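PROTEIN DESIGN WORKSHEET
SECTION A - STRUCTURE
LENGTH: 461
C-ALPHA CELLS:
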C-alpha cells in the first residue's frame, strides 16, 4: 500500500531535501523550499515491475544515420506572419511551444488572435483556460473580433480531464493558459508548485507526441525574468518564445530563445492597439520614424535578430556629473557592462576625458540588443554628445570595437547593408576587413572602411 511521504522541494531549481532548509544548497536561494507530499510503494514492488516490463519489451531499434530516411514536415501557419517568422516558418505538428511573458503584456491576446486565424483556416482549436471563465474569454474575443465556430473554449485545471477532452473533441491545436494553474491528480501538492508544473508539462509532452498535436503552453515571468516554475520546463518543450516589451511603449517583441525546428534567436514585432496586436512588417522604419534631425548624441546602428536585420537609433547623453568621484553610467536596452567597457576604451585610446561625466545610453523604441555589432554606433553616439557635434543623419554604423580601439568584423554584414540601402541611407561605416568581400559591390551605397574607432569618428563627426 502506498505510504505518503513529505519532501521539501526548491521552487526555483527543483532540489529535494528530507527536511526544511532556509537556504537551498543547489541554487543558494533563500526560503525557496516548500513541503510536497508524494507516495512511494513498499518493498520495491514498483521497481521490480518496471524491470519486468523493460525485460518483456522489445529492444529499441538502432540504425546508422545514413540509413535514416528524412520525413517531410509540413508546417501549419498560425495566421500571423510575425508569429510564423518567430517559430521558424510555422507550427510543426507534434511540437510543444512555451510562450512566456510578464503578466498583462499581451500573451493571451496574441494566442487568441492566432488561434482564431487557425480556426478560420479550418482547424479545430481547443483553448483551455485555468485563469479565466469562458465568459471572460468571450468578452475579449468580441473586442478583438475573433469569433469562430471552430474555436472551442473550456475552463478546466485538472490535466486528466483535459486529456479526456482530447479523446472526445479530437482538436488540431491545443492551448493551455496558463501552465501554472493546472495540476495532476498523481501529486498532492498545490497547482503551480515545481512538481505539478513539471508533471503536467511531461504528460502534455507525451500526449502531443503521440497524437502529433501542436500544443501551446502559456507561462508567466518571475521577477528575475525567468519563466515561473522549474527550469527543466524549458528543456521539456520544443520551442521557448518570450513576449517582451515595456508597457509604456506600444510595441511588443516576440523573441525565440529555443527552437528545435528553426533558427534562434528569431524576432517578431507587434504593435499593441485597442483592437489587439498588429504585426509590424518593417520594424526598422517604425523605430526610426521619430528620429530628430541634426541632434547630437544620435547614431544609427544595424543589428541582426535571427535572420532579420534591424536598424535602430542609439541615443546618448553626456553631461557634467553632479556627484564628485561617482559619475553615473546608465544603459537602457543595452548591456550596462558593455557600455562601461566602451567608455573606458574611448578614454584610453581617444584621450577623451569622460571620467567626470554622467553618461546615459538608450535604444529608442524599447528594444533590447546585446550584439557586439552595436559597439560602433554606441561609441559614435557618446562621442557626438560629448563633443556636441551631430553626425551625418544618412550614415549607418556597423562594427565591433576591441580593447585596443580596433574595429572588428561582424557576421552577416550583407543583409544589414541591404536593409540600410532599402531605407534610403547613403553611407555606411564598416570594418576594414569587409573590403575583401566580393559581394558588397552590389550594395548601392557608399561604404567607408575603417580600421580603428578614431578613423570612424573622423569620418562621421
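SECTION B - SEQUENCE
RESIDUE ASSIGNMENT:
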Amino acid at each position: 500500500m502506498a505510504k505518503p511521504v513529505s519532501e521539501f522541494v526548491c521552487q526555483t531549481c527543483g532540489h529535494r531535501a528530507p527536511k526544511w532548509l532556509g537556504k537551498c544548497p543547489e541554487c543558494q536561494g533563500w526560503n525557496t523550499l516548500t513541503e510536497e507530499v508524494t507516495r512511494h510503494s513498499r518493498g520495491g514492488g514498483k521497481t521490480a515491475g518496471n524491470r519486468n516490463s523493460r525485460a518483456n519489451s522489445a529492444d529499441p531499434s538502432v540504425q546508422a544515420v545514413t540509413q535514416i530516411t528524412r520525413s517531410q514536415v509540413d508546417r501549419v501557419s498560425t495566421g500571423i506572419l510575425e508569429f510564423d517568422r518567430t517559430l521558424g516558418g510555422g507550427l510543426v505538428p507534434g511540437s510543444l511551444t512555451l510562450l512566456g511573458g510578464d503578466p498583462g503584456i499581451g500573451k493571451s491576446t496574441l494566442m487568441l488572435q492566432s488561434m482564431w486565424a487557425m480556426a478560420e483556416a479550418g482547424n479545430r482549436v481547443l483553448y483551455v483556460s485555468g485563469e479565466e471563465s469562458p465568459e471572460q474569454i468571450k468578452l475579449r474575443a468580441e473586442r478583438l473580433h475573433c469569433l469562430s465556430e471552430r474555436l472551442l473554449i473550456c475552463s478546466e485545471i485538472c490535466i486528466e480531464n483535459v486529456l479526456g477532452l482530447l479523446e472526445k473533441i479530437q482538436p488540431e491545436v491545443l492551448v493551455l493558459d496558463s501552465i501554472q494553474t493546472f495540476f495532476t491528480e498523481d501529486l498532492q501538492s498545490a497547482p503551480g508548485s515545481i512538481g505539478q508544473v513539471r508533471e503536467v508539462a511531461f504528460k502534455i509532452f507525451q500526449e502531443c507526441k503521440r497524437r502529433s498535436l501542436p500544443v501551446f503552453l502559456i507561462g508567466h515571468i518571475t521577477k528575475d525574468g525567468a519563466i515561473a516554475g522549474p527550469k527543466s520546463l524549458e528543456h521539456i518543450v520544443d520551442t521557448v518564445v518570450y513576449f517582451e516589451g515595456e508597457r509604456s511603449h506600444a510595441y511588443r517583441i516576440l523573441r525565440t530563445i529555443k527552437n528545435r525546428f528553426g533558427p534562434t534567436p528569431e524576432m517578431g514585432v507587434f504593435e499593441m492597439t485597442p483592437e489587439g496586436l498588429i504585426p509590424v512588417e518593417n520594424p526598422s522604419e517604425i523605430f526610426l520614424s521619430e528620429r530628430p534631425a541634426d541632434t547630437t548624441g544620435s547614431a544609427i546602428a544595424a543589428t541582426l535578430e535571427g535572420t532579420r536585420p534591424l536598424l535602430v537609433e542609439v541615443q546618448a547623453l553626456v553631461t557634467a556629473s553632479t556627484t564628485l568621484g561617482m559619475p553615473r553610467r546608465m544603459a537602457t536596452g543595452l548591456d550596462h557592462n558593455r557600455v562601461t567597457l566602451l567608455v573606458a576604451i574611448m578614454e584610453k585610446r581617444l584621450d577623451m576625458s569622460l571620467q567626470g561625466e554622467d553618461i546615459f545610453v538608450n535604444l529608442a523604441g524599447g528594444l533590447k540588443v546585446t550584439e557586439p555589432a552595436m559597439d560602433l554606433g554606441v561609441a559614435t553616439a557618446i562621442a557626438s554628445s560629448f563633443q556636441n557635434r551631430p553626425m551625418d543623419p544618412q550614415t549607418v554604423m556597423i562594427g565591433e570595437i576591441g580593447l585596443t580601439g580596433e574595429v572588428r568584423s561582424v557576421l552577416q554584414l550583407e543583409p544589414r547593408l541591404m536593409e540600410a540601402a532599402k531605407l534610403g541611407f547613403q553611407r555606411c561605416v564598416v570594418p576594414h576587413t569587409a573590403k575583401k568581400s566580393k559581394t558588397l559591390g552590389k550594395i548601392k551605397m557608399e561604404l567607408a572602411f575603417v580600421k580603428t574607432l578614431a578613423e570612424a569618428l573622423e569620418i562621421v563627426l
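SECTION C - NOTES
The chain has twelve helices and 21 strands.
The chain has three domains: 3-45, 81-281, 286-460.
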